[in-house]
Each structure stands twice: as C-alpha cells, then as structure tokens.
C-alpha cells in the first residue's frame, strides 16, 4: 500500500492523471477501469489535454465498473452518461476503445475482462460509507464477482436509486449492476483517490481498520498493488 | 484463480515443484516463502534433485512464514527445523539464501521482505480448519501483518502448541509467530496445494464459499494471482 | 544473461522443460515459440509427460518460428512436421493452441504475435555457424522481421534446402520463411540451449565475442532477459 | 517499438515527463537512468514541479549513464554537474537517491545496477551522428558494457572533449566513461526522445535502417520495450 498525500484537490488530480498516463504509453493493449462521479472531475480535465486526438494511445481500452440504468430512457445509464460527459466525449475516445458494462452483459463482465487480458489498473473513488463501485454496505460481499443489486438490497436503496437519476421517479430503476469485490481485486493495480474533509474518517477506517464487509473498501488494503492518492484534508486523520 | 487438479499426490507434487523451479531460473533475486509440514514432503524430494548443488540458483532466497519456538531447546524452532530436514539440508542450500523468521525478528518481517523486493511467490498448505501459515480461526484477522499469537488466543491453543513440539510438556512454548493474512496477500503470487479426501471439504468452503475470518484461507480467493494445486481427492467436492 | 551449465544432455533437457513448465502454469494466455531439431528431443520427452491431457494448460499457445515447405507434398512443411512428431501429437495438444507459420502467412507473423499479446518466451537452439531459427549467416540481418529467404541467399543454400527435405530432389523447395532477428528480440524472454562439444566454440563466439551479423546469435547477448542452458561439453570453452 | 509523435517540443517534453512520472508512483524501488543535455531541459521543468519535495517519491533512484571528468576541477564531471543544475538541485532530490557513475567506479557500474535490481527505465537522447550516452561511432561496439573511452578513440575525440568542457584547454580530460550498448539494452524499458529538424535524418536512419555500429542507436530498435518520443520536426522523415 502506497499512500500519496498532496496539498490540494488540483495536485491530487494531477498525480492521478500522471499515474494513468504513465500506464497508457505502452506498446501493448492497456485495460483501464475508470470511475465516474465528482472526485475525478479535475483529473479528467488534465487527462483530456494529454489524451485527446492522440492516435498513439489507441492501445488503451476503457471499462466502466458499474451501471445504473434509467427506467425509461434508452441508451446509456447514469455511469456511462457521466463518463461520456466527463471524459470520453471531450477526449474524443474512439468507441472501439470503450467497453460498456450494463444490465445486458454484466453476467459475462468478468469473463470478458479476463479474455481481454485482465485490467491493468482500476481507478476507484470511495464513499463516506466505505463503498467503491456499487459495492455499498449490505449489497455485495467480498466473494462476489460482477453482481446485480436489487432495490430491496438495503433499506434505503430505493432512495439511493432515485437520487442517482436526479430525483425523477419515472426514471428510478429497480436495480443496478456492479463489479464485485472479487472482480475488483483481480486488477493488477488498484488506485483509489479521495478529496476533502468528509472523506477523512472513512480513509482511516477503511485502510487502517479491520477488513470487514461493513466497510467494503477495507478489503482493498490487502491487494498487493494498491496506491491511495489523497489531498491533505482527506488524509487529515491518518497523518 | 487457476485450479490445477492432478491424478494423485505424486503428480500434484511434481506440478508444485515445476512451478517453483520455473520461478527460480531468473537472472535476478527471487524471494520464495515456503511451507513445512506433510503436504510438501514429496515436492521437496523432487525439488532437491533439481536444486542441490546448483550454483546457478544462488539467486533464490528462502523465507519461512511462521515459527513455533521450543521452550528450552536453543536454535531453530519447529518450522525451521522441519524445513531444514525436508529441504535446506538435503538440498545443501547456502545459509546466505535462508532468511529465518523467529520470535526475535517477527516485528520487522514485513519491512525486511519489502526491502528485499517483496515475495515473488509464497507456497501454502491448508488445514482442515481453513488455516494457512499460523493463521488459525480465532488467532489473526485479515488486516494483520506478521503477528505474535499467544497460548490464550483460542481455547485449544495450548493443546495445539503441545502437539507441535511432539507432546513434550517441557518444550511447549506459550506463543508462536506468523506472517498474517495481509502479509501473505502482499506476495506477487500465491500457490496453495492440498492432498487427500480430508481436505476436500475445506477446499470447497475456502475457495467457493464466503470470505470470512472463520475460514482464514477464504481471503486468498481474492488475490489477483492465486494458483491452487490439488490431487483428485482434495478436489472431489468441487468437480 | 543467465548461464546454466548442467552435467549432461538429460539434465540440461530437464532444466529446459522445468523452465517452460514454470511459464505455463499461469491464469492467462501464455505464448511460446518453440524449436524443432535434435537438441530438444529429450526435453520434449519430459514435457510430454507433464503436458499431455492436462486441460489446465489450455491457456498455452504454441508458435513455430520458421518453416521449410516441401516442394510437392501438401500440408505442413519440415518444421511443423517435426514439431508434430516430437511434441504436438504425443502431447495431444489441441490444434486451437497451435499457430503455424508458413509461406502463406509469414508477412503477418509479427503483427499476429503482437495482437496475441507478444511471445512470453522463445526457445532457441543454435547451429555451429551461429544460426538460430532460419537466420543463417548471409541470409537475414539484425533489423529484419519475419522474412522470406530464397535459394540464392547464400552459395550453399540449395544444398541446405536439399538436406532439410532429406535429400529428395523432388521436394527441395526454393525458399523458406523465418522469424528474423528483430522478431525474436521482441520476445519477453529468450531461452537458448545447446548440447555437446560441437557447440562449444560457437557458444563462446556468440555470447562472449562481438555482436555481428556474421554470427547471427551474437545479437541475443544484448537481450535484457536471456537464459542459456548448456551441458558441460557445450560450455567447455567458457568455463 | 512504440513511436509517439507530438506537435512540438513542449508537448513532447510533457509526454516524456508523464511517462517517467508514471514509473515513479510505485510501492517499490524504481531505478531510472536519465540524460543530461539540451533535449531534456523542458521535461525537467515539468518534472521538477511534480517531484520537488514529494517524500512519497523517495523510492525513486537516479543514475547517470556517462561522465566526462574535468581535468583539474574536483567534484562532479560534466554530466553530473548538468543533471544537478537541470534537475537534482531544483527538484531537491535526496543525495541517497542519486548514484553517480564516474571514472572511479565505472568498472562496477553494471554489477551495481544489477544488484540494485536493474534499471526500470533508461531515458536517452540521440545525436545527429547516432550516438546515445557516450556511445559515439567508433568508440564502443554493441557487445560493450560500461566502458572507458580514451581521447584517441576517434580522430576528433580531443576536440569533442574540449567542447564538452566549454573550450577550456586546462580542463579538457583525456577520456570519459559511459554505459555501453549492452549495458543500456539490459534496461527493462528504453525511452528515447528527440526534437527538431536536425534530428529527423538520424531518426529515420537509426530506427528504420540497418542495425550497425556505424549508427550506434540503431541497436535500440531490437529492444523488446522501446518507446520513441518525437516532435513533428524530428519525425518529419518517417511520417
């Protein structure tokens, strides 16, 4: 476990971008699973600059690791829409290099990734509850591969799903899909990043506390190649 | 997770020996943590033949991953004595290539291994209770690094320690030391092997059941580079 | 460059088999380019025992690195016929795992191997003239990828081709194809083995002398991951 | 061989910096051999920003690959002085992480690097004559490890040495030391970068022409993990 603490959000984002770029410049297929959400916004801004229209990076393949479908709207779900907006579109990534996970193919996600040569790196955020990908406390357990999580998985799941689709009841799905803890641990390298005071407590709990399904991200601390990138605020309880 | 099922104990042992030998022939330092006990007896017979007096294998370094000290007898404890008898002495391994873990240095074991470049491979057996190394149910938990386990750790620990020193009350120690789950998971590759009907149930439980501290070896199923070598009997519940 | 010197041909062959087997036991596709000829006969005997009917080795893919077509006979050429007889047939290798190079596809050999993920290991013999694969002095030069070599490439090429088809003038081809020096050097690991007094001089010349196209194998000494396995006779001029 | 062509010198420098940074963020010792001269000036500017005072990069070790001693001045020679000015000092690199090669230790350079675990990456520039490190045409040959090159090695060597010390006859040395072609090829990864029209011809010659001692850098094209980073002008003859 390597812990990198940076001054602020922008510098944390620059390190994350550098780390991903360093993986990309290879003369072989490189498979990256990347995260949507708010933490990576700045990192994608940096990445776009270094990735857009670079044909020499056509060896890089991208995977999303969870998806929340819209109930009615056709096309991509919440995660892929977000990734498109944050990165794939502004960086003009060729669709051939994007491998969407969704409700139609989640059962073969682990096999497909294995056949593609495995993930070289998976980039994760972390929630204040210790979740990463769609592995929320009470949904999946450590031995799970890519999974279907129904609206009844936890007490507040319907509420969570509603919030994920922007509060639009018509679009609230009754499930989502996610790579499970065991899927994520198969990656050759795991990078997790976090920003802000609100993440300080869970960072301590997940990486310096017990490995327990109650704190899903706590499993990651036993991966042989884990890097954690934090700004000072997110690191404030471990320094 | 790659599962190799072989016809019988001898062939399972040959595959384990081949796999270790394949790691050894490199033009760089290779760090192996290896297991004592009864499962590896035949494998060491094969290895000795291919390793003895081979100066071209002086790049290989060996680590024990647990130690049970004798109460009075000075010198090596139970594990290193066993490894000496099974392998180091008959294979005439140079002492410079052997890095004993014991009660005097267990607190720095993880750091020393990291400074040596990390373990390239750790070879493990498994107990019918799901233990590996000295990680018995109730002793260590997943987040533990190399640990001291006292005679009060579990109800039957005094009995276990007595049995480990051959039933000699004068030599029964009141503790042992072991690399913990988190230490083991840092290895670049984990190989676990098992033989016989008596291991069939735990193999199923540990590698196809939940990841839980009640079955310590169950954690290994989430390592990104795990190989399990079984004979048909040990595999009989998973085929 | 790691040099392994063994007592005799049988032990040299065992080490080569061990080294290849060690590569095979992985939970991912493994690409091996292997050699025909007389040097590997014993090694294949060992390998067959450990590979035959092992479905857990269906991740291993095999490539030949040169081919001498028969002029009239249809089907495989000299190299693939030899590999079939020595290894593929007795080891019952699934045809899906065999990727023949021949005169119809040699122009895409390098691209195909790259798309398959590259060679994990290439096993080479060496001729008394310093050739490996079909890279004889005067045929290819260091910068060549997979190449066509015509009967006029060197003065004695017609004679060599005649000898390769057993002296049958009706079957003497007027060319052969071979992976070139640059193709071979792209492999992640190169293993070269040699047996007998008659190879002692070229071993010294190729690996302890100048890197020159006059001694094609001399280029291999600059590969970052080269292992040379010799019996005592083949090593007699370098000890 | 992966070729990256960027718009201009600044962007080429940014890619080189990204690639090096990507190597650095690891939880293990990382050994980099880096180049002095004019090509890397901008790259070091970028690197300094991301490396200065970052204690989490204390796992990175730096090596120079050649040295031209001053005749009289004591202390570092031309290369280390230049590296100090361009990078080590402004980036505040800890001296423990810097491993100077000089005339007193060049004979053990290859062994020391091997014992340190080998070079993870070597970053090279290229001269219009095809030289890299101190491997000028007529000085070393492909099979050479780290070498001493005397003032009589080539006709114009005295002049070259004079120019290297800024034309000061009192300081002109009568030799320099350099890692040889075989030393450089042992690195796990080679990155070569070039800028400007004046390098366009040698880029074509070295990487798309014959492998010959007359063009020392031509050997690099057979390394299994070579990346070439160019701006458009340097790439103008190969596009």
Automatic annotation (TrEMBL), chains A, B, C, D:
InterPro entries: Glc/Gal-6P_isomerase (IPR006148), GlcN6P_deaminase-like (IPR052960), Glucosamine6P_isomerase (IPR004547), Glucosamine6P_isomerase_CS (IPR018321), NagB/RpiA_transferase-like (IPR037171). Pfam families: Glucosamine_iso. Residues 16-221 form the Glucosamine/galactosamine-6-phosphate isomerase domain. Gene3D superfamilies: 3.40.50.1360. GO terms for molecular function: glucosamine-6-phosphate deaminase activity. The keyword RNA-binding does not apply. The keyword Magnesium does not apply. Keywords: Carbohydrate metabolism. One of its GO terms (biological process) is carbohydrate metabolic process. NCBIfam families: PRK12358.1. This is 6-phosphogluconolactonase.
């Amino acid at each position: 476990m390597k812990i990198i603490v940076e001054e602020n959000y922008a510098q944390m984002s620059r390190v994350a971008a550098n780390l991903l770029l360093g993986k990309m410049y290879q003369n072989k297929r490189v498979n990256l699973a990347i995260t949507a959400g708010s933490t990576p916004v700045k990192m994608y801004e940096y990445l776009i600059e270094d990735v857009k229209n670079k044909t020499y990076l056509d060896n890089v393949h991208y995977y999303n690791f969870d998806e929340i479908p819209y109930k009615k709207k056709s096309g991509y779900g919440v995660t892929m829409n977000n990734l498109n907006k944050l990165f794939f579109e502004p960086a003009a990534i060729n669709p051939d290099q994007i491998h969407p996970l969704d409700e139609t193919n989640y059962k073969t996600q682990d096999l497909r990734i294995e056949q593609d040569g495995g993930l070289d790196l998976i980039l994760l955020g972390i929630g204040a509850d210790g979740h990463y990908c769609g592995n929320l406390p009470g949904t999946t357990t450590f031995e799970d591969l890519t999974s279907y999580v129904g609206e009844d998985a936890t007490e507040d799941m319907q509420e969570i799903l509603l919030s994920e689709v922007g509060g639009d009841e018509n679009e609230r799905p009754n499930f989502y899909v996610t790579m499970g803890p065991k899927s994520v641990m198969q990656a050759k390298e795991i990078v997790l990043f976090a920003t802000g005071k609100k993440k300080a407590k869970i960072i301590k709990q997940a990486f310096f506390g017990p490995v327990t399904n109650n704190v899903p991200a706590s499993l990651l601390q036993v991966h042989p190649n884990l890097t954690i990138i934090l700004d000072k605020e997110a690191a404030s309880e471990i320094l």
